[in-house]
Amino acid sequence: MRKRILLYYIVLIVVGMTITGFFVTQLTQSLYKDEVKHRLLTVATLFDHELSQASKGGSPIDYNALAKDYAGSLDRFYNLNGAAEPADVSGNAIESRITVIDYKGNVLGESQTDYNSMENHLDRKEVQQAIQGKTGEDIRFSSTLKMDFLYIAVPSTYAGSVIRVSVPLVQLKKINSLIWQYCLLGILAGLLLTMLLAFRFASNISRPVKALTYASKEIADGNYSKRADVRSKDELGQLAATFNEMAEKLDKTVTDLKDKNMKFDAILNSMTNCLVSVDHKMRIILINSIAARFFGIENQPADDSILGRPFIEIIRNHQLNEIMQQTVSGNSSSENEITISMRDEGIYRVYASPVRSSDGSAGNSGAIMTIHDVTTIKKLERIRSEFVSNVTHELKTPLTSIRGFIETLKSGAVKDPEVAARFLDIIDIEAERLTMLINDILQLSEIENKKSDINISTHNLNDVIDEVISILKGSAGQKNVRLIVDAEPNIIIQANRDRIKQMLINLIDNAINYNVENGSVCIKAAKTEGRLVITVADTGIGIDTEHLPRIFERFYRVDKGRSRNMGGTGLGLSIVKHIVNLYDGDITVESEPGKGTEFIVQLPV
Ligand code: ADP
């Protein structure tokens, strides 16, 4: 920049000085010529006067002698007055030259050369003009003297002749070269001065420009807080102030945009549902991280390889593609429930809405789609409806039985005391079953809705086991089933005592109920590796492998009749499973039909 300014200055000076030199030369030449012309005119006029004086004598005039004589005295006059003496190329002095020519062009007299040898001068321009009565004038280059000559010719008052005076314009060359020397000197001095001044000026100009350039480069590189440090009050100062103002606004806009983008990204990526948006050509313009994960494209950088690519190419699901396409070309939102098989098969609710063009033009600018995983909801819905129908069924059976026996009693059986007593016993049993069923349902629904248990306190597990044994001793005795307890002494647990008791009752009660005559039930409890392990093993009928995965489901029974006969509700193991889950524990079952079953409960200590 500084170099360029310097160069401009130099070119400016050289061009300026050259133009000035040219015009000064022209002006000086013109002045000099005017001056010489004037002098020659004076000489011609004086010489004419000389001629008229000479003609008064009456004798013929010797033009040649007169011209020589007059030119000689003229040169002497110039020498005396210090006028610079003209000289030819060889340095010989050149005197003023006076020629007398008649109207036919014949030379009558000449101060320098032999007039007899001179050719006819009629064709000379200045002579022609003088013959016409005007003052003739011409500048011609003399090849003999190698310089310009100025010729002035006037008509003589003495009839019939023209007086021509000429002088070499030898000073002209001198003046020219002098002017050009001065111009050159001016250029050199100007250049020197320019170098000094321009360096300073250029620095003054280039410094703020440099500061502006640097600041804009920094801003272009993303450093929006950079400002140009220019304090001058000139145009560059104003430019810098405007630039800084602009940078300020840019900084604010970019910060605002970043902020909005961050919020947008945060919202988009913290969504639990998949979100994909396309433009009117079905090219992806937006996809959140959960959607990228869902469609297995999370490892691709979202900006370059996903955005702008066709929906079908990335999402690879024809159902979704069709919904999206219909939404883009249609005008209404849609809600569909579809099954998508990604890693696992799931049920998804797909909402798709068209995105209207912001410029008000016809058609949509694209569409947006959200995909909600409703697999769990659907599963829960199914479980709930199954549960309701199971409960209804379970309640219906004893109720039907009770009503049947009441009808029988009403229609006369009541009169037979023996039959009546038997029927009433059955009604009692069925009512008891109903109570148990309702209790189990209530218990299950209470645990089911809990994330952690209440009423937790410190208890001795051995005491709880003993209590359960004493409760179930009677039913075990009826079947002659031995109850063996093999527990570490003093196992202290932090739990709701009633829950642990309920869990043990359900497991041990099953172990007795599904046992064989003279069988046994072994209850073990021990703390190992920070876990409390309780096992209930029986020598009973066992469970077929195919049933094992389902026995913890509500109302699932391997043998419905047997379970019912034994007063089972089909909810016992389900309650156990929920209690174990409440304590972040784990329950497993191992069984061999005909040999026995073992339930292993592991609880964190
Ligand atoms: P139920 O009230 O019918 O006993 P549970 O939920 O307690 O319901 O048990 C579910 C089913 O699992 C039972 O119907 C039974 O078929 C089977 N079962 C549970 N415990 C045992 C066991 N110890 N031995 C054999 N089968 C069992």
What report would you give on this structure?
This protein has 605 residues and is an alpha+beta fold. The protein contains 15 helices and 17 strands. The protein has helices spanning 2-55, 63-80, 125-131, 170-220, 235-270, 289-294, 302-306, 311-315, 318-329, 375-410, 417-448, 461-478, 497-513, 560-565, 572-582; strands spanning 97-102, 107-110, 136-142, 147-155, 161-168, 274-279, 284-287, 334-341, 345-356, 364-373, 457-460, 482-487, 492-495, 520-528, 531-538, 586-592, 596-604. The strands form four sheets. Strands 2-1-5-4-3 form a five-stranded antiparallel β-sheet. Helix 4 (170-220) packs parallel to helix 5 (235-270), helix 10 packs antiparallel against helix 11 and helix 11 (417-448) runs parallel beside helix 15. The model is unreliable at 84-92 (pLDDT under 50). Bound molecules: adenosine-5'-diphosphate. Adenosine-5'-diphosphate binds next to helix 13 and helix 15.
Secondary-structure-derived class: alpha+beta
Bound molecules: adenosine-5'-diphosphate
Beta-strand residue fraction = 15-25%
Assembly state: single chain
Count every beta strand, where a strand is a DSSP E run of 2 or more residues: 17
Q: In angstroms, what separates the terminal alpha carbons?
A: 80 Å
Number of helices: 15
The geometry reads as rod-shaped
Estimate percent helicity.
Answer: 40-55%
The pLDDT mean sits at: 86
Strand arrangement, largest sheet?
Answer: 2-1-5-4-3
Sheet with most strands = 5 strands, antiparallel
Radius of gyration: 65 Å
Poorly predicted sequence stretches spanning 5 or more consecutive residues: 84-92
